[in-house]
Amino acid sequence: MQPAAPSRSARFRHWFRTEARPILLTLALLMLARTSFANHYQVPSGSMEPTLYPGDQVAVDMSAYGLRLPYTDIQLIRRDRPQRGDVVVFKSPADGTRLIKRVAAVAGDTVELRQGRLAINGRPLSSEGTPDVEVFGQRRIRLGLELGGGPDIAPTVLPTGTLLVLGDHRGNSADGRYFGLVDADSVYARAVAVYWRSGEGFLWQRL
């Protein structure tokens, strides 16, 4: 007498345990890593030219400033704070849209902007010899000023927990001059490098 064939439910349990469960676990771990550690962002506009161009694919480090619970704004571990010169991805205070801009000033700074050029704590970031280049520590940032500098900012001290974010294309950027200061905790990623650009293909341009 031949043994009875396994029931459909028994076959399903065996298939799930031996084949499906490992695949689902792997996918879950990949999604967790993608939402917590690394991701990418497609630049939607020219507000960061000439650093970033529309359509650029940018690799971002989602753990640069801390670890968050996936798909939420709940911060589990705080690592660092955004620094002047960082290119960051954050939620707009105006409508929650995810934007990419440069941190121009941090809490405690006195910031001033005239004709598109920054001064922090009374010190201009550009010089007469290179008026279209700003220096943030080791970073030298070329500005887009062919459309002018956009609105000025009178000397302003940034309150605790806030950032001023600006586009490098100062005359063509809807940034902190329009939607105000950004809560530092709303910054969820630091842009690391451009890895793909239309017309050039794959590259690795550090930011």
Q: What secondary-structure arrangement, pairings included, does this model have?
A:
Elements lengths: L7 H29 L1 E5 L14 E5 L4 E3 L6 E4 L8 E5 L6 E9 L3 E5 L2 E4 L2 E2 L8 E4 L2 E4 L10 E5 L4 E5 L9 H4 L2 E2 L3 E11 L3 E6 L1
Antiparallel strand pairs: 1-2, 2-15, 3-4, 5-6, 5-15, 6-13, 7-8, 7-12, 8-9, 10-11, 13-14, 15-16
What does this structure look like?
The chain is of the alpha+beta class. The chain has two domains: 36 residues; 169 residues, Umud Fragment, subunit A. Helix content is 16%, strand content 38%. The chain contains two helices and 16 strands. Strands 1, 2, 5, 6, 13, 14, 15 and 16 form an eight-stranded antiparallel β-sheet that branches. Strands 9-8-7-12 form a four-stranded antiparallel β-sheet, with no helix packed on it. It has a two-stranded antiparallel ribbon with strand order 3-4. A hairpin with a 6-residue loop joins β3 and β4. The protein is globular, with a radius of gyration of 23 Å. About 6% of the residues have low confidence.
Please describe the structure with a list of short key phrases separated by commas or semicolons.
alpha+beta; 38% strand; globular; 2 domains; 4-stranded antiparallel beta sheet; 8-stranded antiparallel beta sheet; 2 helices; 16 strands
